[in-house]
Amino acid sequence: MKFEAYRREYTAGGLARDDLDACPVRQFEHWLQQAVDAGLSDPTAMVLATVDADGNPGQRIVLLKGASSDGFVFYTNYGSAKAQAIAAEPRVSLLFPWNELDRQVIVGGIAEKMPFAESARYFLSRPRESQVAAWASRQSRPVPARAALEAEVKRLMQQFGRGEVPVPDFWGGYRVRPTRMEFWQGGAHRLHDRFLYTRQEDDTWTIEQLQP
């Protein structure tokens, strides 16, 4: 395939300043609902970008589990590569790639651990199999074979029996408090529409349009 020859026009629609909500989180919620209504397979999937203690960038897809004026929420193992990177550098970036709608949203902000009670409430709402999987996986560490992981899941299923699966102390949530949010709408002939929200010291937001 000749990659340099592949292209398509972005014709899903434009974006004007008057279309935007004064609050970027409300604007995000509006777009997210449209992504859900459009039937996108993973509308809450987002790319989390971090930089570790050695300055190495990393990216991975995680699932959004909450969005409010306080921030964007996801959950993970606190021993994972992403968690270790956040401990070293809490400034992160989130990317929502809604390609089918010719849209993307980029969120820049500060990631902070959530209180245990909030993480526990979400953990206890998860399917039992997912709860046990959180115990079984020492995320990002080497494993000799998948069979070893499956055997650990089986062992833990027997250990917990039919009782409540306790919340692991090495697992929980992060909330990313946004400081910048960019909304991108693809445009014909690569004349895309981009608007950047920037949080001010008094927690109000400024909006400016960016060149494509």
From TrEMBL:
The keyword Plastid does not apply. Residues 171-212 form the Pyridoxine 5'-phosphate oxidase dimerisation C-terminal domain. It comes from the Bacteria. It catalyses: pyridoxine 5'-phosphate + O2 = pyridoxal 5'-phosphate + H2O2; pyridoxamine 5'-phosphate + O2 + H2O = pyridoxal 5'-phosphate + H2O2 + NH4(+). Its cofactor is FMN. Pathway: Cofactor metabolism; pyridoxal 5'-phosphate salvage; pyridoxal 5'-phosphate from pyridoxine 5'-phosphate: step 1/1; Cofactor metabolism; pyridoxal 5'-phosphate salvage; pyridoxal 5'-phosphate from pyridoxamine 5'-phosphate: step 1/1. The keyword Disulfide bond does not apply. HAMAP family: PdxH (MF_01629). Belongs to the pyridoxamine 5'-phosphate oxidase family. This is Pyridoxine/pyridoxamine 5'-phosphate oxidase. It comes from Pseudohaliea rubra DSM 19751.
